[in-house]
Amino acid sequence: MEQSFLAWLRGRVRNLPAASVGVGIGDDAAIIDVPVGQQLVATTDTIIDQVDFVFGQHAAVDIGFKAMAINLSDVAAMGGVATSALVTLSLPSTKATETAAAIYEGILEAAQKYGVAIAGGDLSVYDGPLSISITMLGTVPVGAAWLRSGAIEGDVLIVSGPVGGSLLGRHLRPHPRLDLVSRLREAVTVHAAIDISDGFSLDLDRLCAASGVGVAIDTERLPIHADAVARAEATGRKPLEHALGDGEDFELILAMSVDDWEKIQSQAETWGLVRIGKFIGRTGLWSTGEKGLQRMLASGFIHGQKRDSGLNAIGLGNAPH
Amino acid sequence: MEQSFLAWLRGRVRNLPAASVGVGIGDDAAIIDVPVGQQLVATTDTIIDQVDFVFGQHAAVDIGFKAMAINLSDVAAMGGVATSALVTLSLPSTKATETAAAIYEGILEAAQKYGVAIAGGDLSVYDGPLSISITMLGTVPVGAAWLRSGAIEGDVLIVSGPVGGSLLGRHLRPHPRLDLVSRLREAVTVHAAIDISDGFSLDLDRLCAASGVGVAIDTERLPIHADAVARAEATGRKPLEHALGDGEDFELILAMSVDDWEKIQSQAETWGLVRIGKFIGRTGLWSTGEKGLQRMLASGFIHGQKRDSGLNAIGLGNAPH
After folding, report:
1. How far apart are CA B296 and CA B128, in angstroms?
2. Exposed end of chain A (fewer CB within 10 Å): N or C?
3. Which is nearest to B107 in space by CA: B67, B159, B53, B47?
4. What pLDDT score was predicted for residue B45?
5. Mutate: best of B12, B40, B123, B147, partner A, most A CBs <10 A
6. Which CATH number goes with the domain that contains B204?
7. Are A129 and B128 in contact (CB under 8 A)?
8. Which residues contact A270 (CB under 8 A, 6 or more apart)?
9. How far is B258 from chain A, CA to nearest CA, in Å?
């Protein structure tokens, strides 16, 4: 790597918000403040060329942005505020500096947009595919993280926006729903949350399994993204199938009490929230309709099994197996 | 990856100390306590087959141990206490599960030995070389991290143990000097610290540059490791050259006042500490001897330049450039 690149990077990083970072790049480790009354949120996710994206086909700036956004989404799913990131790039030796700079454009764009400092990281040049590994750090009020395991029978099921068809391009530019965290914390108690990375029904199933409850989904209310409709035209499947099974929407699935939902109902639409069902004592996913409860199977990306795209990443910190 | 591997891993991880981890593997992110009066220490370092080690030649358990140890050493160099790690493995598809299990044996051994929880991570299978990326988290008392920049003129220069020749095998089984942190914090005020990853003289030069001071080294007092002597026999260079220039010792270089040094002098030897010089106003590295101050050049692994082994990793968070 050229020294000029590192000088450029350090200059760019200095311009980011860094209120919580006491010591950033340039020492053996970063020193970060966690205010009294807060706990640390920490998550890490890696994306790799030919596994999670296709370098050349997907723009480097988008790949960098996505690497940040998927980690920011995990912080949002915990009800956290993201403060700083550690960024590790493993770069193919051909045009390593150009690649690093282009990827960093997207990383810095996301950092600026979501108010996150780059507190440190690592750069390697190697004989392998481009890989971007980010550790995102943040804070949550002590004891008030939104876990997957907190949904209870009677809670309403909420999704934070339309889902499906992200593969048409949205998956590269996700909008992690950090905006919802302060809004919801001010108004209600979220019982449980998860972000939709592997598919609405699969991630909902994980939340149910962690909480020991089931869920009755009014599938007619599920907000289907226009991209899911467009995808359905290409695949011959139903838009609803894409909405239920496609991954990388990065919207949140939320559980809260009926009373809390009624408190925020007037603003909920503005925030993108839609009530689409309720959590029930009987385990499993169920659709509600004219015929009564019908069993649904979770569909989506099953960890550890290759699917068409060759995806084969397992989020150790991000998903129960 | 096989589900049985993940089940095994989660069982093993549960047996580790995890006092500070509120939520570990299995949610969107980990939740970690940072006690009142403490700041977070965060560092990340990646090691890659053919860049930092040679898979097949070096045992997988050692590689896993080393990946943890180099990060633990960075926490020690900040005067921190390590609490938890996020572990990311990128695995070649051939025998991915066996490789992951063998690497994790070393990771878990280090976690057990140094009292660190595995709070999360990521696993990918890809068409590339084995890569292990670890983010280590810990705590330091607020405002009391041992920075590189705190050495002042008149401070004594201390090294925590013999250096040189780690390539003979020690580099795979480093002993991060976390043991020194509580001992020194109880007795003295450390002004500055750095761990020796790229070579004694090079890392000392970095500390001096960050502190805006120079250093006069009594090279005859520098503790030379027996491995440096052995290496010198093979290379024809002097043992002192290996002690000054070889990397991956993972001992600490420390700066403190003369008064503080005298306070701990009686125990210092037991802890491995040796006083080998003093920090001076005149910048640069200088050796003291019969001829008076002689200019020394920092030698060691210069980041971003390939050396014989093909090493080409740049610690963004761990080293100034």
Report:
1. 41
2. C
3. B67
4. 96
5. B40
6. 3.90.650.10
7. yes
8. none
9. 24
- Regarding whether B258 and B174 lie in a shared domain, the answer is yes
- Over the stretch A252-310, which tens digit does the pLDDT of each residue have? 999 999 999 999 999 999 999 999 999 999 999 999 977 888 998 887 654 444 333 32
Are both A83 and A199 inside the same structural domain?
Answer: no
With an 8 Å Cβ cutoff, are B27 and A78 in contact?
Answer: yes
A154, part of any domain: yes
- The total number of structural domains in chain A stands at 2
Q: Does a structural domain hold residue A302?
A: no
Among A124, A131, A304, select the one facing B312 at the smallest CB separation: A124
User: Mean pLDDT in each 10-residue stretch from start to end of chain B (321 residues)?
Assistant: 80 86 88 96 96 94 98 98 97 95 97 96 95 98 97 98 94 96 97 96 96 96 96 95 94 98 95 98 91 83 40 40 29
Q: Out of B28, B38, B148, whose CB is closest to A318?
A: B28
- Closest partner CB to A42 (pick from B120, B313, B320): B120
Q: Looking at residue B24, what is its pLDDT?
A: 83
Instruction: Give the distance from residue B193's alpha carbon to the nearest chain A alpha carbon, in angstroms.
Output: 9
Q: Do A319 and B26 touch (CB under 8 A)?
A: yes
> Which of B45, B304, B317 lies closest to A25 in CB terms?
B317
Distance, in Å, from the CA atom of A207 to the CA atom of A213, rounded to the nearest integer, reads 9
On whether the CB atoms of residues A174 and A252 are closer than 8 A, the answer is: no
Same-domain pairing of B181 and B220 = yes
Residues A90 and A199 in one domain: no
Question: What's the DSSP call for residue A269?
Answer: H
Q: Which residue has the higher pLDDT, A124 or B18?
A: A124
Point out which residues pair with B31 in neighbouring strands.
Answer: A41, B23
Domain boundary among B85, B117, B141: B141
Q: Which amino acid is at B132?
A: I
Nearest to B273 by CA among B263, B264, B281: B264
Instruction: Check: CB of residue B80 under 8 Å from CB of residue A29.
Output: yes
Q: What is the CA radius of gyration of chain B?
A: 20
Longest CA span, chain A: 67
B316 with A120: Cβ contact below 8 A: yes
AA letter at A227:
D
Contact check, Cβ <8 Å, B321/A3: yes
Chain A residues close to B32, C-beta within 8 Å: 39-42
Min Cα distance B290 → chain A (Å) is 35
DSSP string covering A126-171, please?
ESS--EEEEEEEEEEETT----GGG--TTPEEEESS-BS-GGGTGG
pLDDT in tens, A143-180: 999 999 999 999 999 999 999 999 998 999 999 999 99
Confidence of residue A15 (pLDDT cuts 50, 70, 90): confident
* Cα–chain center distance at B70: 4
- For residue A123, give how far its alpha carbon lies from the nearest alpha carbon of chain B (Å): 5
ipTM: 0.92
Q: Quote the tokens at residue A203.
A: 């991630």
B77 is a domain residue: yes
Could you tell me which residue, A18 or A62, shows the higher pLDDT? A62
Provide the domain limits for residue A78.
Answer: 3-141
